[in-house]
Each structure stands twice: as C-alpha cells, then as structure tokens.
Amino acid sequence: ARAQAMQVDGSPDVSYDDIGGLEAQIREVREAVEEPLVNAQQFRDVGIEPPSGVLLHGPPGTGKTMLAKAVANETDATFIKMAGSELVRKFIGEGARLVRDLFELASERQPAIIFIDEIDAIAAKRTESKTSGDAEVQRTMMQLLSEMDGFDDRGEIRIIAATNRFDMLDRAILRPGRFDRLIEVPNPDVAGRERILDIHTEDMNLSEDVDLRAMARQTDGLSGAELASMATEAGMFAIRDERTTVEQRDFRDALEKIDQGGETGSQPVA
Ligand code: ATP
C-alpha cells in the first residue's frame, strides 16, 4: 500500500521560473523551507528553530503543488507526496501506519520534502466534516502530529501541506511546532495571469495577432490551472481548424468554453 499511497519523485522537474505571479509566496517558501535545509548551521548559530511545517492555502489550481516541487528541485531533495483525501478514501484503516511509513521513507531519502495535499481530509474540525469524527481519521491526524513533534532530531526533512479549505481546518494543527507558517496562495492578478499565459504558451506556435496581455485582462478569477488549460484549448481550436498557428480568436473561443464550465471548473469571469 505504501507504494500506491505515496508519490515519490527523486528530482521533480518544476523550477521557480515555471511559476507565474507568486513572487512573494516563492520568497516566503524559500525562507521557511529552503533556507533551513541549505543553511541549517546558520539557524543553529543564531539559536532559532526554523518553522516546523508550512501550510499553503488558497483556491484549487493556483500552484501550491508546483511551489512544493520547486523547493524540492532547488534543494536537490526527494519529493514525497501524500494526498489526505486518499488516506481517508482508499486506505481505510491504514492511515496512521501510512503516515509513519511516510516519515520513515523521508528519513531514508533525506534531504526530503514531504508534501501532504488536501490536509483538510485528515485535519478537519469535528463539526464540519462527516469523516473527522471518525476515530480512524482522528488516529491518522494524531500520528501526523506526533511525527511532527518528534521532528527536531530527524535531520533534513521539511514538511509542506496544502488545502483549499482553510476554514475547515482543526486549529490544533496550526499551533507552534506544527504548521506554524501559513502562506496564502491566491488566484493570480492581471500581471500574474499574463506571466502564466507566457509560460504556458512558450512552446506554442502563436500568430502575430495574439495578445496575451488582453487575454490576461479578460480572465479575472481564473486560476493558473484554468489558464493553462485555456492555452491548450486554444491549440485544440487551431488543430480543429487545420491550422498550425494559434490565433487570437482561438484564445477567445477557449475562454468562452472555459467560462461555460468546460473542463476545469466554472469560476465566474468578470
Ligand atoms: P490543487 O489545490 O487543486 O491541488 P494546486 O494549487 O496544487 O491545486 P498545481 O497542481 O500546482 O495547483 O497546479 C496545477 C497546474 O496548473 C500546474 O501543473 C500548472 O500547469 C498550472 N498552474 C497553476 N498555477 C500556476 C502558476 N502560478 N504558474 C504557472 N502554472 C500554474
């Protein structure tokens, strides 16, 4: 079960340059996760503990997983991902043991970044979740907290969690020594959207008439993931039209499709 529940990547291929519009978040993640890994001695010299765990929170598809992968890439750390939702749905009865395995694996493969996606699935307030009252889910969360408490002597392991449902979290996991550094990862602003469109059209054969800045202005409320799929969708419209060059109208058609709740969601566009 260990192999299925965890996704291990020796060298993730995401770099900070691949992430559009999250300059402040990149800076914070570097300070909270990268520095303590790279300059552990400096923290000891100064006599402070680095943040225990970092929690990334914000809407779906905004680049939280990318941020965690980019830190692992930058620090040559093993990236080990576990999805909270899978622990609850697929590995019933095994949650606590899998959490133990997760930290054991990280310890074998250090330096390592542990990434726990959808942490709300195992750490929701009792009142807000059907499953959190479940003794099994409670046990999984207790195991996670106890692994984090015994963290100091574990060496080069950093832990990052992510959630789209910050409001649902049990505040116990935010206490000092646990996820004590919060970083909000919002939907991109207009400059961020333009940068994300630049990144995702880099390898595309774009016509002269394509105006990504204009597209950025028209896509308020879209996430990075939705912008990425808009770019792909624009390419699909060109192919359907038997062209090899992608034109501005393809982007307009793609946006219309996404607005109508196409593949990635149905967030309203202003
Ligand atoms: P979720 O909360 O749904 O797990 P997430 O915040 O972890 O989402 P990612 O998995 O990092 O989102 O992003 C999904 C995809 O969307 C990325 O692989 C990338 O193609 C695109 N994307 C999202 N945000 C950005 C961004 N800021 N810059 C560039 N691409 C982005």
- Please give the alpha-carbon distance between the first and last residues: 45 Å
Please state how the strands of the largest beta sheet are arranged side by side: 1-3-4-5-2-6
Counting DSSP E segments of at least 2 residues, the number of strands comes to 6
Roughly how much helix do the residues carry, as a percent range?
40-55%
Average pLDDT works out at 89
Unreliable spans: none
- Spell out the helices and strands N to C: HEHHEHEHHEHEEHHHH
Identify the overall geometry. globular
Beta-strand content estimate: 5-15%
The major β-sheet equals: 6 strands, mixed
Number of helical segments with 4 or more residues: 11
Bound molecules: adenosine-5'-triphosphate
Radius of gyration: 20 Å
Oligomer: single chain
Describe this structure in words.
The chain has helices spanning 2-5, 23-38, 40-46, 64-74, 84-89, 95-108, 135-149, 190-201, 212-217, 224-240, 248-259; strands at 6-9, 53-57, 78-83, 112-117, 157-163, 181-184. The protein has 270 residues and is of the alpha/beta class. The radius of gyration is 20 Å and the shape is globular. 43% of the residues are buried. The structure holds adenosine-5'-triphosphate. This is Proteasome-activating nucleotidase. ATP binds at residues 61-66, 200.
Write a short abstract of this structure.
The protein has 270 residues and is an alpha/beta fold. It has eleven helices and six strands. It is 44% helix and 12% strand.
Fill in the keyword field for this structure:
270 residues; alpha/beta; 6-stranded mixed beta sheet; 11 helices; 6 strands; binds adenosine-5'-triphosphate
